[in-house]
Amino acid sequence: MKRGFAWMLALLLLLGLLSGCGGSGDAAASDDAMTGADTADNGTASAGGSYGAWAETEAAEDSGQAGDSGDDRLENAKMIYTARMEVETTGFDAADADLRTLVEVLGGYFEQAAVHNYGSGYRSGDYTVRIPADQYRPFLERVGTLCHVTYQEESSDNVSTAYYDAESRLVTQQTKLERLQALLAQAENMEDIITIESAISDTELEIEQLTGTLRHYDSLVDFSTVYITLQEVYQLSNVEEPATSFGSRVGTAFASGWRGFVSTLESLAVALAYGWVWLLLLAVIGAAAGRYFWKRHRRQTQPREPEKKP
């Protein structure tokens, strides 16, 4: 009886060892690719700006799917979608309010939001938005209608292999735990009890880690991540129609060069306005230094009067 019990215990320990080795490589590789967080403060905002009413009426009509949802190959795939956007606006307050309203209407939340003003007179905002995966594509398109997009990058990560591997190992560990608990109920001597309890503890730890991994994957799959940089500008960049003929291309080049020259002068004037105290101080110091050296040079160049003989 004891020999049979020992063989059953050894078989269960071997099963746990094989299941742990089978998926550890994929899990380690997938953890490096995961970004974002499972928990975050749900940033809420009141409806504001010019977008509010339109967004609320249009959100219910949108049933677009993230990525290429019509592709059967991705029907059961675990996809993580990430995007980075750089946008401009001439009305920062309205754009910020519209963006917050859009996120709220589509069922997302702000993982991080910050507004900066470095003294240049123009503000900028950095946002990390978590948006439901089925609203990922509509969200990107609507941001483009709220602000002027200057840069957009999208990426996707298929974590199906790592996800289903972790899910399979979780089922194996749960089965192993049930059998170990049954063996513990039949154990008679203290040595077997200690060995089984140690195996149960290791199995419970493995189950907890696998459960956390699956929850983290679920968070990244269910909610896509969009990083947005909102910049307030005096004039939107690259808004002219693309030139086709030689004359229009030359005219566009001259116009762009003139706008760049004017923009540079405006930036210089703003910088001088902010630093007028330092400029005044430097001017005073420069005038004092120039006066001192001029007097010194004058004394050195003047002819000396001849000494009178007694």
UniProtKB/TrEMBL annotation:
Protein name: DUF4349 domain-containing protein
Coiled-coil annotated residue ranges, if any: 170-197
Transmembrane residue ranges: 273-294
Keywords, sorted A to Z: Coiled coil, Membrane, Signal, Transmembrane, Transmembrane helix
Top-level taxonomic group: Bacteria
Pfam family, one: DUF4349
Signal peptide feature range: 1-29
Species assigned in the record: Oscillibacter valericigenes
Limits of the DUF4349 domain: 78-288
